[in-house]
Amino acid sequence: MPAIKLSSKTLVHISSGLYRSTANALKELISNAFDADATLVEINTNSPRFDTLTCKDNGTGMSKTEFERLMEGGIGNSRKRVGMADDNEVTATGRPLIGRIGIGLLAIAQVCYQFKISSHHRETRTAFEAVVNLRPYRRDELASADTEKNIDLEVGQYTCKEIRYDESAAGVFLSTKDMHPSYTQRYSDDVVREAFQLVPMRFSSFLSEVLSKRSIRELGDYWQLLWELCISCPVSYVDEGPLRADYIIASSEHDSKTQVVASATEAIGIAGKLSAALTGYNFTVKLDGTPIRKPALLPHKESLQLESRAFPIEFDGKIEGSRLKYDGYIYLQTRMIKPAELRGILVRVRNVAIGDYDLTCLNYEKVQGFRRDWLSGEVFVEHGLEDALNIDRHSFNEVHPHFMAMQRHIHKLLNEDVFPSALRASTLSGRRKSESTRTTGDSALTESIKAVVNMRYTVSRDGKKTSEPVPINIDEKKHRIVIHEHPLWPKNRTARIAAERIAVAFMLARLHAEDSESIAEIAFQILGGSTAS
């Protein structure tokens, strides 16, 4: 039976345009460093000129033999997991292996034509230096080539030589000055914009700035590059992230359904476990000197009028004979989450983000309108789904059984727990906001009364229904104003608060006016002061 053959043109496509963005390409180099048990990766873009790019890690490194194997047919044929069982695909330090296909080394070709690589390998105590040139073999030159003769087509050239091993330089150093003009122009144009802001060296300052924006796009391409690296890489969370436990638990206690607090507690526990695992990897990534972290901090700002809820995600089973295991959380608040890039559900396979936060929530079919903007969540896949990954590791084959099983599970959770809870939380938030407005208004009214009649009154409501014509009692000795329930009050809460103030102002004016002509004047003075406050 004849064999099916793959044209080497495939690798040309991989090297010249596989990755959606610069961050997505750099993510592959960072993943390689993670798999090599590096503790530090430093990327430098030479901002604001962007005419060079370097990536240095302090991992195990790569041997000359392995590099040459990759260059001579090994790209796309990873050997990282050879001989490993599914439950034991880990690095020497116990990190879950990310790499599987073996194309990460060519990721930098997204932004350059030629690059230099040097590596000092800890295990063999050997080192090499190589130059990889893809310029003569760009896609446009190959488009007219004879496909039938392209089975063994070269996709680049390289030179490689041994150098003296240096323990202090252990790891991989990759650099390039042969940049694509479009890459250089994109980021150079960005930093000269009138609205451009320098990225702060302190990550806390960076986080504060981006979480105040409706979208990262407001800050430009360079900020977005840093944000995408924060989202995608297996680095630790920002302090207190991703879920602020005390606030979410306290807020969940407002819900009438008792299981809401238990659900929040379980979700916070899962998020805490995931956060601790990432911290335990001891993996740091810096972009131009700025250390990056996962930016999820939910809720970002505390508010008495904000209701927060959290829901656990857990699954462990076999789908068509293959194990699928993941856990995570969904967070919900009764206010739009900022920035927009933090809304939706993000799927991570072996700690690396697959794409961005998905506002459609894996193509959720029911219309939720603005409530989708209240939601953020993460799914960490420990086993499975890798066969569903598209080659750019930025999206999924949506008809793969693992993806479809996860999709059904997430949608069931949204249907039965998340969005019904959003409805209850929204109602409660509205009531609390109204009560807060009323309390603030009462304080303003009290101060206004004191300023006009030179006496401090307290305002309270006893909830008792009365049939008296006027549902307000004023105790002049105790300087107390009590407002009762009465059919006369408007049903609309805003209108009722206004009616209460007017009634109180005129009743006090009658008590303190010297004549009938000054009643209206005193009442309007009280109302004017209250409104101004």
Number of strands: 16
- Let me know the largest β-sheet: 8 strands, mixed
Structural class: alpha+beta
Shape: elongated
**Number of helices, counting only DSSP H or I runs of 4 residues or more:** 12
Terminal Cα separation, in Å?
Answer: 87 Å
Q: How many domains make up the coordinates?
A: 3
Mean pLDDT: 84
**Strand portion, in percent?**
15-25%
Secondary structure topology:
Layout: H1 9-17, H2 22-35, E1 40-44, E2 53-57, H3 64-74, E3 112-121, E4 126-133, H4 139-142, E5 157-163, E6 171-179, H5 181-191, H6 203-210, H7 221-232, H8 245-252, H9 259-280, E7 284-287, E8 290-291, E9 308-319, E10 322-333, E11 344-349, E12 352-353, E13 375-383, H10 401-453, E14 458-465, E15 472-475, E16 480-485, H11 493-512, H12 519-532
Task: Describe the 3D structure.
By secondary structure, the protein is α+β, with helices and mostly antiparallel strands. It folds into three domains: 1-192, Heat Shock Protein 90 (2-Layer Sandwich); 236-436, no CATH class; 455-532, no CATH class. The chain is built from twelve helices and 16 strands. It has helices at residues 9-17, 22-35, 64-74, 139-142, 181-191, 203-210, 221-232, 245-252, 259-280, 401-453, 493-512, 519-532, and strands at residues 40-44, 53-57, 112-121, 126-133, 157-163, 171-179, 284-287, 290-291, 308-319, 322-333, 344-349, 352-353, 375-383, 458-465, 472-475, 480-485. The chain has an eight-stranded mixed sheet. The chain has a five-stranded mixed sheet with strand order 9-10-13-11-12. Helix 8 (245-252) runs antiparallel to helix 9. The longest helix has 53 residues, at 401-453. The N and C termini lie far apart (87 Å). 37% of the residues are buried.
